[in-house]
Amino acid sequence: MTTKWALLHTLVWGENMARIKYRDADIDLIARMMRAEAEGEGNQGMLYVGNVIVNRVVADCLDFRDVRSVEDVIYQVQGGNYSFEAVQKGNLFYSPARENERRLARQVVTYWRDHPGKYALWYFNPYAPCPPTWYSQPFAGQFKNHCYYEPAAGSCDSVYV
Predict the structure, then answer these.
(1) CATH at 24
(2) Does 6 map to a domain?
(3) 3-class DSSP string for the chain
(4) Which residues form the domain of 55?
(5) Any idea where the Cell wall hydrolase SleB domain is (predicted)?
(6) Which of 9, 15, 47, 114 is deepest in the core (most CB within 10 A)?
Protein backbone atom coordinates (compact mmCIF):
# COMPACT_ATOMS: atom_id res chain seq x y z
CA MET A 1 0.00 0.00 0.00
CA THR A 2 1.38 3.41 -0.88
CA THR A 3 1.24 6.59 1.11
CA LYS A 4 -1.39 7.82 -1.36
CA TRP A 5 -3.67 4.92 -0.38
CA ALA A 6 -3.09 5.51 3.31
CA LEU A 7 -4.11 9.15 2.82
CA LEU A 8 -7.23 8.07 0.90
CA HIS A 9 -8.09 5.63 3.71
CA THR A 10 -7.75 8.43 6.24
CA LEU A 11 -9.95 10.78 4.21
CA VAL A 12 -12.66 8.18 3.52
CA TRP A 13 -12.81 6.34 6.83
CA GLY A 14 -11.39 9.03 9.12
CA GLU A 15 -8.66 6.87 10.61
CA ASN A 16 -5.00 6.28 9.95
CA MET A 17 -3.80 2.93 8.68
CA ALA A 18 -0.96 1.71 10.80
CA ARG A 19 1.82 -0.46 9.39
CA ILE A 20 2.31 -2.06 12.81
CA LYS A 21 0.37 -2.58 16.01
CA TYR A 22 1.48 -0.02 18.55
CA ARG A 23 0.73 1.47 21.95
CA ASP A 24 1.47 4.92 23.33
CA ALA A 25 4.61 3.48 24.94
CA ASP A 26 5.81 2.40 21.47
CA ILE A 27 5.31 5.91 20.10
CA ASP A 28 7.43 7.19 22.98
CA LEU A 29 10.20 4.63 22.30
CA ILE A 30 10.29 5.42 18.58
CA ALA A 31 10.27 9.16 19.29
CA ARG A 32 13.15 8.91 21.76
CA MET A 33 15.21 6.75 19.40
CA MET A 34 14.58 8.99 16.41
CA ARG A 35 15.82 11.99 18.39
CA ALA A 36 18.81 10.15 19.87
CA GLU A 37 19.95 8.85 16.48
CA ALA A 38 19.15 11.78 14.18
CA GLU A 39 18.19 14.99 15.96
CA GLY A 40 21.05 16.78 14.18
CA GLU A 41 19.50 15.81 10.83
CA GLY A 42 16.20 17.53 11.55
CA ASN A 43 12.68 16.17 11.24
CA GLN A 44 13.40 14.50 7.90
CA GLY A 45 16.39 12.59 9.27
CA MET A 46 14.39 11.51 12.31
CA LEU A 47 11.58 10.26 10.05
CA TYR A 48 14.06 8.08 8.12
CA VAL A 49 15.29 6.52 11.36
CA GLY A 50 11.65 5.91 12.26
CA ASN A 51 11.17 4.16 8.91
CA VAL A 52 14.00 1.77 9.77
CA ILE A 53 12.46 0.99 13.17
CA VAL A 54 9.02 0.24 11.69
CA ASN A 55 10.58 -1.72 8.81
CA ARG A 56 12.37 -3.95 11.32
CA VAL A 57 9.10 -4.69 13.11
CA VAL A 58 7.48 -5.60 9.77
CA ALA A 59 10.45 -7.60 8.46
CA ASP A 60 10.28 -11.33 9.06
CA CYS A 61 13.70 -12.10 7.68
CA LEU A 62 17.44 -11.89 8.14
CA ASP A 63 18.40 -10.41 11.54
CA PHE A 64 14.78 -9.51 12.32
CA ARG A 65 12.97 -12.87 12.30
CA ASP A 66 12.38 -12.83 16.04
CA VAL A 67 11.50 -9.16 16.53
CA ARG A 68 7.77 -8.48 16.37
CA SER A 69 7.34 -5.30 18.41
CA VAL A 70 8.84 -1.84 18.71
CA GLU A 71 10.33 -2.81 22.06
CA ASP A 72 11.93 -5.93 20.52
CA VAL A 73 13.49 -3.77 17.79
CA ILE A 74 14.76 -1.01 20.09
CA TYR A 75 16.35 -3.39 22.61
CA GLN A 76 17.55 -6.06 20.15
CA VAL A 77 21.07 -7.33 20.89
CA GLN A 78 23.26 -8.53 18.04
CA GLY A 79 26.82 -9.70 18.49
CA GLY A 80 26.77 -8.72 22.16
CA ASN A 81 25.74 -5.10 21.51
CA TYR A 82 22.45 -3.30 21.20
CA SER A 83 21.47 -2.75 17.57
CA PHE A 84 20.93 0.94 18.31
CA GLU A 85 24.00 2.56 19.82
CA ALA A 86 21.84 5.09 21.68
CA VAL A 87 20.47 2.38 24.01
CA GLN A 88 23.97 1.60 25.24
CA LYS A 89 25.37 5.12 25.32
CA GLY A 90 22.30 6.60 26.96
CA ASN A 91 22.66 10.02 25.35
CA LEU A 92 19.30 11.54 24.40
CA PHE A 93 17.48 8.21 24.31
CA TYR A 94 16.83 8.27 28.05
CA SER A 95 15.37 11.79 28.02
CA PRO A 96 11.58 12.16 27.72
CA ALA A 97 10.20 12.48 24.19
CA ARG A 98 8.98 15.89 23.10
CA GLU A 99 5.66 16.41 21.32
CA ASN A 100 7.31 17.06 17.94
CA GLU A 101 9.13 13.72 18.13
CA ARG A 102 5.94 11.92 19.18
CA ARG A 103 4.15 13.48 16.19
CA LEU A 104 6.91 12.23 13.87
CA ALA A 105 6.74 8.76 15.44
CA ARG A 106 2.98 8.64 14.84
CA GLN A 107 3.65 9.57 11.21
CA VAL A 108 5.97 6.62 10.63
CA VAL A 109 3.67 4.06 12.24
CA THR A 110 0.70 5.39 10.26
CA TYR A 111 2.38 4.75 6.95
CA TRP A 112 4.76 7.65 6.24
CA ARG A 113 7.63 6.23 4.16
CA ASP A 114 10.17 7.91 1.92
CA HIS A 115 13.48 7.26 0.20
CA PRO A 116 16.15 6.45 1.41
CA GLY A 117 14.50 5.00 4.53
CA LYS A 118 11.41 3.66 2.76
CA TYR A 119 12.58 0.01 2.64
CA ALA A 120 15.78 0.33 4.67
CA LEU A 121 16.58 -2.05 7.50
CA TRP A 122 19.97 -0.54 8.37
CA TYR A 123 21.66 2.84 8.54
CA PHE A 124 24.89 4.13 9.95
CA ASN A 125 27.18 7.14 9.92
CA PRO A 126 30.45 6.06 8.29
CA TYR A 127 32.25 9.41 8.75
CA ALA A 128 33.32 8.82 5.12
CA PRO A 129 31.57 8.22 1.79
CA CYS A 130 28.82 5.59 1.96
CA PRO A 131 30.04 2.15 0.89
CA PRO A 132 28.07 0.49 -1.94
CA THR A 133 27.07 -2.39 0.35
CA TRP A 134 26.77 -2.97 4.09
CA TYR A 135 27.17 -6.61 5.10
CA SER A 136 26.24 -7.56 1.51
CA GLN A 137 23.08 -5.41 1.56
CA PRO A 138 22.75 -2.74 -1.17
CA PHE A 139 23.05 0.98 -0.57
CA ALA A 140 19.63 2.68 -0.79
CA GLY A 141 20.71 6.29 -0.39
CA GLN A 142 22.10 8.90 1.93
CA PHE A 143 20.57 11.68 3.98
CA LYS A 144 23.06 14.07 5.52
CA ASN A 145 25.43 11.89 7.61
CA HIS A 146 23.51 8.60 7.48
CA CYS A 147 23.82 5.89 4.83
CA TYR A 148 20.73 3.66 4.39
CA TYR A 149 20.71 0.04 3.24
CA GLU A 150 17.85 -2.13 1.97
CA PRO A 151 17.72 -5.92 2.02
CA ALA A 152 19.08 -7.61 -1.10
CA ALA A 153 16.44 -8.52 -3.68
CA GLY A 154 14.46 -11.60 -2.68
CA SER A 155 15.86 -11.75 0.86
CA CYS A 156 13.11 -9.89 2.71
CA ASP A 157 9.90 -9.43 0.76
CA SER A 158 7.89 -8.44 3.87
CA VAL A 159 9.64 -5.07 4.13
CA TYR A 160 8.33 -4.05 0.69
CA VAL A 161 4.66 -4.37 1.70
Answers:
(1) 1.10.10.2520
(2) no
(3) CCHHHHHHHHHHHCCCCCCCCCCHHHHHHHHHHHHHHHHHHHHHHHHHHHHHHHHHHHCCCHHHCCCCCHHHHHCCEECCEECCHHHHHCCHHHCCCCHHHHHHHHHHHCCCCCCCCCCCCEEECCCCCCCCEECCEEEEEEECCEEEECCCCCCCHHHHC
(4) 20-160
(5) 40-149
(6) 47
Tell me the C-alpha distance between 44 and 67, whole Å: 25
Closest CA to 52 of 9, 105, 126, 10: 105
The alpha carbon torsion through 68, 69, 71, 72 (nearest 10 deg) reads 0
Residue 124 phi/psi, 5-degree rounding, is: -160, 165
pLDDT tens track for 109-142: 999 999 999 999 999 999 999 999 999 999 999 9
15 pLDDT more than 60: no
Spatial separation of the C-alpha atoms in residues 95 and 118, rounded to whole Å? 27
